[in-house]
Amino acid sequence: MEKAMNKLNKILYVEDERDIQTVVQIALENVGGFTLKPCFSGVEAINSAAEFNPDLLLLDVMMPEMDGPATLLKLKQIPALENTPVIFMTAKVQPDEIEYLKSLGAIDVIPKPFDPMTLANQITSIWEKHNN
Amino acid sequence: MINQNLNVSEYSGNGILPYILDASINGIIILNMSSQVVFWNLWMERHSNIEQSQAVGKELLMLFPLLKGKRIDSAIKNSLQHGNSTILSHALNRDPFPLCVDKHPDKAIKQSIFITPINTAENYRLCSIQIQDVTSSVQRENLLRTMAKEAEKAQREAEKLNKIKTEFISTVSHELRTPLTSILGSLGLICGGLTGKIPKETDALIQIAKKNGENLLTLINDLLDSDKIESGRMKLNLQPLEIMSFMDEALSRNNGFAITHNVKFKITKRIKNISINADELRLKQVMSNLLSNAAKFSPPQSTIEISVERTINNIRISITDHGPGIPEKFQSILFDKFTQSDSSDARKSGGTGLGLNITKAIVELHNGHIMFDTKMGEGTTFHIELPIN
Hints:
Helix content of chain A is 42%, strand content 18%. Chain A is of the alpha/beta class. Chain A binds chain B through residues 17, 19-20, 22-24, 26-27, 30-31, 62, 91-95, 112-117, and chain B through 170, 173-174, 177-182, 184-186, 188-189, 191-192, 194, 217, 224, 228, 235.
């Protein structure tokens, strides 16, 4: 709870598509000024999450082996991340798919494709709305 | 006493009655209290292969031994002893009498049988057995049943195919969106100056790539929406919406189309403080479709006029362009899928051919209407009417 009131800075980002990861990394680090920990899989995210201690989890949905919802479940079992807000990014944009992701506890869902120049602002306003 | 037996020899018919019974299109058998046949009409002769003279005086079970112990046997006894009537439908009593057409065993007659007691004035009790030929109704019923089963099967098949189509569109949409995210994302970062200043010629080429990527995304979204509309899965999130604030924002959001096509959007009539119940995102989609169409088909430097008025129960939004107008032969199919007035239009204007179809569906989901007036060489006005709260 205390962490949620801080300014958004550290984002743990999980995306298996290298190209999309590169775009998001530039958009969030260079445009948004955030500190990003990019991971290619859910397992990698679980192994590095506690040490990185993120303010926000940004998860892709469709990933091989461990998908976004399964990754979320495992990350939430780490005590330090129990209250860390989660945003999903997905190319599955049907309303029922988005509702399903929100029902898992995500504070919002960002559809792909997104505007990379406004992505950081979009994430900040979701974060602020959640904290207010 | 109404249960006295009538001897066969005493039965002589009564005037024309036997002729009437012979002319019947049903089989008629009259039995006495001993279950002996006292009357056997011509229909029975023709379809049982037993002549009247052979039948009269014989017990029914001697003529048809197979009936012994069957439901008809007990129904006859019940009629003679207790005066009860029974109807034996074909569905529950399949062909009790071995009757057929033209003495042909393959032409068995389907039967409905009515067993009724007859109490005569002389206190005799008889039993009337009337046999109705229901062969053609049974055949019709069977045909209808087969057709209904086939229709049900076809419906199940269509639903299955529809589900496969929806899953296919959803999967293709996802698979196309993933590379488009990288393409549009990379181009967006370059356009945003993240890689430094871009030479003019390079910028023009990047804009072409970006515009075409965005057109592809529109097509994917339109295909998804079209499938949702077709399968009745498009749901609206209705909220109160102040119409003029919405229109000002819609024009501002779509001003990029005006700039691209070198035209202007201008609101010529406004209304104050009127709200409607609408799905803001879907209505934005409607305005984007109509404003982008108006911009695409307008001559450069022309003005597209937008008016917002109130009618008795609706608000009416009209968008007027000064484009070429809609040819008469396309007017009746304008809101159909994949309709472009010129086959090269889609390529020239970047349209998907689904926009107006989706627009109409969204307006109608709001219980509204969409119409247009058009004149060749002068332009077109699209009107949307939406109910006020």
